[in-house]
Amino acid sequence: MTAMIPYGRQDISESDIDQVVQVLRSDYLTQGPIVPRFEEEVARYCGAKHAVATNSATAALHVACLALRVGPGDSVWTSPTTFVASANCALYCGAQVDFVDIDPYTYNMSVPCLTKKLVRARIDGTLPKVVIPVHLCGQSCDMEAIHSLAQEYGFRIVEDASHAIGGKYRGQPVGNCRFSDVTVFSFHPVKVITTGEGGMALTNDPLLARSMQQYRSHGVTNDSSEMKPRPEDEIWNYQQIRIGYNYRMTDILAALGVSQLSRLNEFVCVRHAIADYYDRALADFPLTIPGQHPDAYSSYHLYPIRVTAKRCGKTQQQIYRGLHAAGVLVNLHYIPVYRQPFYEQMGFGAGYCPEAERYYKETLSLPMFPSLSCQQQQRVVSALAEVLSL
Ligand SMILES: *Cc1c(COP(=O)(O)O)cnc(C)c1O
Fold it and tell me: At how many degrees (to 10) do helices 206-216 and 57-67 cross?
């Protein structure tokens, strides 16, 4: 039997392994010098002032919302076409979540839909405190437009860039926070670079950075300027000043992150070559290849194709089954978050965001990862041709 081809996988080199082993032999496994080094290097790569490493992007989204003071009575808006974590972070804070439909070409949050929803919310008094645009597949949202709406309607912005490290918007790295308050990356193994589990929140605002650092580590500070003056326990060097969590990254994982970051440009370059190959090989297939906005340089975390029974004679599910039978493990990214049973029980239902629902019914992510060989790409394309009887 031929080997299965997953939709995504990590690429770990001998030098990645060596850097992790070095930490295992050192004095510090968790809070040593490597986490701050990884933070500095990601901040420098992206052109942001501050970076706060966490043990997942989910944790980074949570501390970002907390630092922006999201709480009960507030509303947070995100895209329905995303992983559930983009929405769950608001619920962790006791806030409400709502969804803005996607653009039919880029699949990112639609600026016209966002504008329309804001106009209505201003009248109804239900404006969001935070909007979380998601850079789906690694392609940046139209951040300048979303930022100017933020100025007009008074909301804050957290970019969920879990897919998009290494991507660019108008020639500048995603993560520079020029048009947002915070940008979040994920280092889960299917993402562009990995630390096993891990995430990071970037910002240019020193107060937000400080606040996220505290939420990351139990709400504890050892900075005397933040402590309550207590002469009697002056020699003890820490105080808990708010409620926080244990969301810290370890030095073991940060070492993998530092090493993977040094390979990021090469990874993105290979991902582009794979996308170019698919673009050309599928040009005459009765399906839609992912649209690229001229302002965005994608990191190509994912390569989603769209199929309709009307155009290609097969449904999405038939194609999914046919490709899996051929060992090509395509996947769907994503079911609209509000169609999850947990969200439906909050009152959301089918049809709430029509474009996101069409995407859900028509899309499959093809295998896309740096070690995908030419031969494997050819296998993907010929399996697809066979399933479509081309
Ligand atoms: C993977 C992912 C997350 C969560 O990342 P973790 O690091 O696994 O917590 C959040 N948002 C999006 C869009 C993702 O793809």
Answer: 120
Domain 14-261 has CATH 3.40.640.10: yes
Choosing among 3.40.1000.10, 2.40.30.30, 3.40.50.1970, 3.90.1150.10, the CATH entry for 264-387 is: 3.90.1150.10
- Give yes or no for residue 162 CB within 6 A of ligand 1: yes
> Using a 6 Å cutoff on CB, does residue 160 contact ligand 1?
yes
Q: Give the number of the atom of ligand 1 that is nearest the alpha carbon of residue 58.
A: 9
pLDDT mean across residues, the chain = 97
- Angle among Cα 188, 172, 56 to the nearest 5 degrees reads 20
For ligand 1, whether the C-beta of 203 sits within 6 Å is: no
- At 272, the amino acid letter reads H
Cβ of 60 closer than 6 Å to ligand 1, yes or no, is no
Kindly report the length of the chain. 390
Helix or strand run (H / E) with residue 265: helix 264-281
pLDDT in tens, 316-346: 999 999 999 999 999 999 999 999 999 999 9
Residue 1: pLDDT over 70: no
